[in-house]
Design a protein that fits this description.
4 domains, 40% helix, alpha+beta, four-stranded antiparallel beta sheet, 714 residues, Methylamine Dehydrogenase, Chain H
């Protein structure tokens, strides 16, 4: 057994996550006739198990036990009689109750399965799972009446066949899911390997395979937008139709069942189920004209079905090993298929006839992808090679070693570039000449699936551990991550509620922290304002005292002038007084002469009178001079005090200016710290708002999903 084969065995063993599949793998590889005989007997036994489910034998007893009390010929509640086959098909007041071939579209089944209201039986427990399964199978087999009725093929629930191949952007808005339930069908504690990824050709939409479900995400917002149940098992292949309106999923359970399902992308309605494989479907596609579905897997047989009536058109048995990949050409003319033993073939899609046998790979073919013009096919292999083939002669026009340990998946984009991933843990983007445009950061384990979203120019890849990364295709930056195993809505709601409480507490703490920064800044600003005010007041005081000094000095100057003037006048009066006193003495000496006595007496009296007058004036001048001197002294005191106050104000100004300068330097970090605190507060407010929005969102989603069964955890 080769190393390549062993690697492939490990991959598919882990993907199926079942002991039954590993047993199947061993059985398939045995080459003895006995093993082949046992496998044939097992398949034959399984075919026998798919027995007819009829109304008379299986369904009517259930109705008799649980429904006849309200829905019989005697008591037709809601106009519905379930006692006879014809009456059951006829339905009641709400119309027909059975849609042959489709349990999901049968009103009666949706009631007993509690998918619609009023749930049946009313005010009672849901029917046993075995009973519901019998009713489902009875409807899906065509609602047979008795053992003589024939099982009919499942018919499509809508005519989605197109007149021509559709490879161009559809008119109007590209199909995107309407409002749908986000409740996962299955949730597991541990992630599993990513088995399939596909992107819509014309919408920002990616489909990711999960356990018994397909998850859809908006590739612009990376928001989860829909869940498509796949109860048949694990989807191993996902493909959008070329116009983006349909989504195909193929998969199943190893060594048990394989199916392909088709959904309407916009409504989420399951339109068609095809295939009844005894092993899981590993490769499938729908033609661009939506007239054919091809599927294949471990059975080594490629089957092509008509979407018009579900009938098998062709069976291709050329492959000698598991068919691992297939894809219709964009023009629906050709079908490429590849297998685990490096077999790579091109078939005429309409006839099923072989067109080309492409030889060149030396390892298992892991994927094929057509260029949009249908003239070129890319193939990838466990040999590490990507090959480009032309379709006229089947020649490999380019080949390069893309991933040293094997290429897992490839995808052509609209620009003709090829996204790939491989066992070297990496995803890459190439041109058709084999030149690597970009290598994206490595996963921690094997990179298994990749797809290129043309609408957002994103590369989306997943690995063995269940990690899914979305990169910007141009610059390689991580845009986000997706999950193939999303949490149930109740858990999301609980986590959002806890997050809201945590964010609220963090916001309160941050608001308190911001308040402390505001207080600290307010204090420093107050000190700064005080320093500024001190400086201004001191300058005002200096100016005031300067004016006082100036005024006093002017007054002193005036007073001094006045004092000098009075002194001058006093001196003059003193001189005159001296003169008069001298005259007085002379007259008093002369008055002794009798001849001049009378005359001199009169003159002496006059002189004495002048002396008294001048003496009085001099006394008044002395008094005035003394008053002026006191005023000068007072003004000098004012000047002295004003100068002291001026010096004090000058010192205060210097102190205020120095303090202002100091505070001005240290206040900047306070502003910075407050600004940072405010930004953190805004961020905390946004986080709280986001958490609160999440709570409301999950409340709404839970209310919307209440009519659906809860997720099963395991």
């Amino acid at each position: 057994m080769s190393n390549t084969f062993k690697q492939f065995m490990v991959l598919f063993l882990s993907l199926t996550i079942s002991f039954a599949l590993s047993a199947s793998l061993v059985a398939v590889e045995k080459k003895t006739g006995k093993a082949k005989k046992k496998a044939a007997q097992k398949k034959k036994g399984q075919k026998k198990k798919i027995a007819k489910i009829t109304f008379d034998e299986h369904v009517k007893p259930i109705f008799r036990d649980k429904c006849f009390s309200c829905h019989s010929r005697d008591k037709k509640k809601g106009g519905l009689d379930l006692t006879t086959y014809s009456a059951t098909l006829e339905g009641g007041g709400s119309g027909e109750s059975i849609e042959k071939g489709s349990a999901e579209d049968s009103y009666l089944f949706t009631l007993v399965n509690h998918d619609s209201e009023p749930a049946m039986p009313p005010k009672a427990d849901k029917l046993a799972a075995t009973s519901i399964t019998l009713i489902r199978k009875w409807i899906e087999q065509g609602a047979l009446e008795n053992g003589g009725s024939q099982i009919v093929a499942s018919q499509p629930k809508a005519n989605f066949k197109l007149k021509d191949a559709s490879n161009t952007r559809p008119s109007g808005a590209a199909p995107m899911p309407q409002k749908m339930s986000l409740e996962p069908v299955v949730y597991t504690k541990n992630n599993t390997a990513i088995t399939a990824i596909a992107t819509s050709p014309w919408a920002p939409l990616v489909a990711i395979a999960g356990q018994q479900q397909v998850l859809l995400y908006n590739t612009q917002t990376l928001e989860h937008v829909a869940v498509f149940p796949f109860p048949e098992g694990v989807p191993y292949v996902l493909k959008f139709s070329r116009n983006g309106s349909l989504l195909l999923a193929g998969g199943g359970r190893g060594a048990k069942v394989g199916k392909v399902a088709i959904w309407n992308v916009k409504t989420g309605k399951r339109l068609f189920t095809v295939g009844d494989e005894l092993d899981c479907v590993m490769a499938a596609d729908i033609s661009s004209d939506q007239s054919m579905i091809a599927l294949a897997g471990p059975t080594r047989v490629v089957r092509i079905y008509s979407t018009e009536n579900g009938q098998l058109l062709h069976q291709i048995k050329k492959h000698t090993d598991w068919v691992t990949t297939l894809e219709f050409s964009p023009d629906s003319v050709l079908l490429a298929t590849g297998d685990r033993s490096n077999g790579l073939f091109i078939w005429e899609a309409k006839s099923g006839q072989e067109y080309l046998n492409l030889k060149g790979h030396r390892g298992a073919i892991t994927d094929v992808s057509w260029r949009s013009d249908s003239n070129v096919l890319a193939s990838s292999s466990e040999d590490g090679q990507i090959k480009i083939w032309e379709m006229e002669n089947g020649r490999a026009i380019k080949s390069w070693r893309a991933h040293s340990k094997g290429v897992s998946d490839i995808d052509f984009n609209r620009a003709g570039q090829i996204a790939s991933c491989g066992r070297d843990f990496r995803a890459c983007l190439w041109n058709q000449n084999g030149k690597r445009i970009r290598a994206y950061p490595s996963f921690k384990d094997l990179a298994l699936r990749v797809s290129y979203c043309d609408e957002t120019q994103s590369v989306i890849a997943g690995d063995w551990t269940g990690q899914i990364v979305v990169w910007n295709g141009k610059n390689g930056k991580v845009r986000g991550r997706l999950s193939a195993n999303p949490l149930p809505l109740k858990i999301r709601f609980d986590e959002a509620t806890k997050s809201t409480a945590l964010r609220h507490a963090e916001l309160q703490k941050q608001l308190a922290f911001q308040k402390s920064k505001e207080i600290a800044l307010a204090k420093i600003k107050l000190s700064l304002d005080a320093a500024s005010q001190l400086t201004a007041t001191s300058r005002h005081e200096q100016a005031k005292q300067k004016r006082i000094v100036s005024s006093s000095q002017k007054t002193i100057s005036t007073l001094k002038k006045q004092s000098r003037k009075i002194n001058n006048q006093k001196n003059q009066k003193t001189t005159r007084l001296k003169q008069f006193k001298k005259q007085q003495k002379e007259i008093e000496k002369s008055i002794a002469k009798p001849s001049q006595k009378k005359e001199l007496a009169i003159k002496l009296a006059s002189i004495k009178k002048e002396i008294v007058k001048i003496t009085t004036q001099i006394q008044m001048d002395d008094k005035t001079i003394k008053n002026v001197a006191q005023k000068i002294s007072s003004e000098k005191q004012k000047v002295s005090e004003a100068n002291k106050k001026r010096e004090a104000a000058k010192a205060a100004e210097k102190k205020g200016a120095k303090n202002y300068k100091r505070l001005k330097k240290i206040i900047k970090p306070y502003y910075v710290n407050l600004s940072k605190a405010k930004k953190v507060t805004v961020q905390a407010q946004k986080q709280l708002a986001t958490a609160q929005t999440a709570v409301k969102k999950w409340q709404t989603e839970i209310a919307f999903a209440t009519k659906r069964p809860p997720a099963r955890s395991r």
